[in-house]
Each structure stands twice: as C-alpha cells, then as structure tokens.
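Journal club prep — side note

Before the paper discussion, L.F. wants everyone to see what a predicted structure for a comparable chain looks like in token form. Sequence:
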Amino acid sequence: MRADEKGEGDRDDGHLLTGARVANHLADAVPQGPEAIIEAARRFTDEEVLLGIAFLSGILEVAAVSARTLARVQLERRARRVSVEGWN
C-alpha cells in the first residue's frame, strides 16, 4: 500500500468515526425531546454536521435495503407455505 493510500484510508476511518460519534450524541439527546436534539446538533462544527449527515444517510440506505430484502424473504416464505398447504 502506498503511503498516500494509507493516509486516505485513515482519513476515511476518521470521518466514519466522527459521523458515528455525531449520530451517537444525537441519539443520546432523543429521550430529552426535539429541542435537546436541536441544541446538541447546534454544538457540532460544520464538518461534524456534514459527516453526521453522510454517516446517517449510509445507515438509512443499509436499513432500507435490509428491510426490502427481509420483506421479500417473508413473502417468499408465505408463498411457499401457501403452496405446501395447498398440497395437503
């Protein structure tokens, strides 16, 4: 691995960790209500806000794909059960 590639990977890891930290701080504020979440978000730097958005967007994308996949598997299993029950 070239030195510049390693540095880029380290930066990406740092960005990921920062995004995760931002999300964690916001999650900690959720029980206190919307105003607490806004106040927590206002304390972040511009870079932290952007990295938090990027991190949470990635989480939402994975969650959406996972939910669609699980729903498809559930439908397949229901169809299989109906098919098997029809033979009995």
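L.F.'s comment for the group: The chain has a mean pLDDT of 90. Keep this in mind when we get to the figures.
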